[in-house]
Amino acid sequence: MQLILCLGGYRVKSNLQMVVGIATIACLLASVPFAVARQATPISENFAATSIDLGLVVSDVDKTVAFYTNVLGFKELAGFSGDADFLTKVGLTDNQSITVRVLALGEGPNATKLKVMSFSQVPVSRVDQTFIHSAYGVRYLTVLVKDLNLAIEHAAMAGGKPIAQSPQPLPANLAPGIGLANYRDPDGNIVELVGPWK
User: Fold this and answer.
1) What Rg value do the Cα atoms of the chain yield, rounded?
2) Over the stretch 93-115, which tens digit does the pLDDT of each residue have?
3) Which fold has domain 49-123?
4) Is residue 9 left, alpha or beta, with left meaning phi > 0 and alpha meaning psi from -120 to 50?
């Protein structure tokens, strides 16, 4: 099959393969500026949010949700379920489905979210939570508050007890007037509340 092309005022006979080839080259050339523009963006500017969602596997979801909502003041959002086949394909489980309860710290799309789940059908090994240096991995969560006294009072009313000798003031050379109070969730994970303290 032949086509007649008009190139620069000249009539050129061409077959279909040549037209397809020219169209392919034109498409490739058109995509070059886009590809160059994507590579020019620093990777540090490629984040869609400035918060990190955390997945927390726990022994008792209800107790954990009660701790984070009642003692610390997180808000529970709509949860979701994960299909075993999908989770296996992405490497998160070995053919186990999950139901996740979602807790948020603050409001809006950039609020930090804690995704709480448990697995009753598989054995889960416990991590040594004695101190933050007792095991590798994520060892504690830091929650910044506007008023540490208020946070401590609220936690106490909900049955939360600071661990060791906290609260304590941070060293004056680091942050004068700022205190830190550490708590343990039902599985022993440490959560530190940090903020102005009198």
Assistant:
1) 28
2) 999 999 999 999 989 888 999 99
3) 2,3-Dihydroxybiphenyl 1,2-Dioxygenase; domain 1 (3.10.180)
4) left
